[in-house]
């Protein structure tokens, strides 16, 4: 649904060049929620601006819903952009317009007739739970309500794709949860594909199917969350896994190791089986369980007590069982 091929963008400043995108390839499948994460300055905003061509990449192509936007200009580009809705960190609502008139704006620009427009606006406000705020002005709304208006406006022209620029960074954690839930729910119901940029892994955890890590203008890792989680040494997987407390010294002088359980592995009696096989004691020190991209992911910190060789054997066995044991050397 969105295809980015070798996107490059350099800003020329007096006396120096800043490479913002250094050859980005990305493919977002229809209906998917795709997150792009990265530190400040990694190139996330530039990437998003290049997708709807608010910024023209120096080279490379952007294809959205089968149409190569980078080959279009003027009226053709304006038309093609109606396939793309956008929501912003600071909502970007027009203060002098009512909620209904803000949502109606893309429809006005697309030349939709008054009656049809009004019906569509009612439907959209209903969808985002703001039917009773149609006549209110943005200043009278909370941050979460403003973003709901932003979502309704982005959906107004019936886009195939929605771009979200740090959509929840200005909101508190509870409001963030409800906005992300709404975004996930509405876009999956309407079959809209979402590309979002964020610097928060919590956002990726709660809504994304796939994720890419941008660093210095390059994608250094990407893929569906479910496959990243089972990729050894994946930086993204590590950042997305449920958090265990900072390692404490071994309480009984044993070997401390963190194990990761994905999906069905959580149901197997591997701890008792391994303890029996190697004739050691294994106790659970800490644990966490979360749902990530529809997959149950568990992490367990265990302490192995027994002969050094037996403990090594047990750790090797955990590796064979794909539990990715990480040993804490204390
Ligand atoms: N209009 C511009 N002119 C000059 N340099 C720019 C411009 N926009 C971005 N840059 C530079 O390009 C690089 C990438 O910036 P970008 O804003 O895309 O990163 P980001 O990952 O979105 O960062 P943040 O999370 O802080 O918004 C940075 O070094 C930035 O200073």
UniProtKB/TrEMBL annotation:
One of its GO terms (molecular function) is ATP binding. SUPFAM superfamilies: ACT-like, P-loop containing nucleoside triphosphate hydrolases. It comes from the Bacteria. Residues 2-241 form the ABC transporter domain. SMART domains: AAA (SM00382), NIL (SM00930). It holds the Pfam family NIL. Keywords: Amino-acid transport, ATP-binding, Cell membrane, Membrane, Nucleotide-binding, Translocase, Transport. This is Methionine ABC transporter ATP-binding protein. It comes from Tenggerimyces flavus. The lineage of its organism: Bacteria, Bacillati, Actinomycetota, Actinomycetes, Propionibacteriales.
């Amino acid at each position: 649904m969105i295809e980015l091929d070798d996107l490059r963008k350099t800003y020329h400043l007096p006396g120096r060049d800043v490479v913002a995108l250094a050859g980005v390839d990305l493919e977002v499948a229809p209906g998917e929620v795709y997150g792009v994460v990265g530190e400040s300055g990694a190139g996330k905003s530039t990437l998003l601006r290049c997708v709807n061509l608010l910024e023209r990449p120096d080279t490379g192509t952007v294809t959205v819903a089968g149409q190569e936007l980078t080959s279009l200009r003027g009226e053709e580009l304006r038309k093609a952009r109606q396939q793309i809705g956008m929501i912003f960190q600071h909502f970007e609502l027009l203060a002098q317009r009512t909620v209904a008139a803000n949502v109606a704006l893309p429809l006005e620009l697309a030349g939709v007739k008054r009656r049809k427009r009004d019906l569509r606006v009612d439907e959209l406000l209903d969808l985002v739970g703001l039917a009773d705020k149609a006549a209110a002005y943005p200043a009278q709304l909370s941050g979460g309500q403003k973003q709901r208006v932003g979502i309704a406006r982005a959906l107004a022209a019936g886009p195939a794709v929605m771009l979200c620029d740090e959509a929840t960074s200005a909101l508190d954690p509870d409001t963030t949860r409800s906005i992300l839930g709404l975004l996930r729910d509405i876009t999956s119901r309407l079959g809209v594909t979402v590309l979002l940029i964020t610097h928060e892994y919590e956002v990726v955890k709660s809504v994304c199917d796939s994720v890419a890590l941008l660093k210095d203008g390059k994608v250094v890792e990407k893929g569906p969350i479910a496959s990243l989680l089972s990729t050894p040494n994946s930086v993204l997987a590590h950042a997305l896994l449920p958090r265990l407390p900072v390692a404490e010294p071994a309480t009984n002088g044993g070997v401390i190791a963190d194990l990761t359980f994905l999906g069905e592995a959580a149901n197997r009696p591997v701890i008792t089986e391994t303890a029996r096989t190697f004739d050691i004691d294994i106790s659970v020190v800490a644990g966490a369980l979360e749902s990530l991209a529809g997959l149950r992911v568990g992490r367990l910190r265990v302490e192995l007590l027994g002969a050094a060789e037996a403990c090594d054997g047990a750790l090797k066995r955990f590796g064979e069982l794909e539990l990715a044991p990480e040993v804490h050397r204390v």
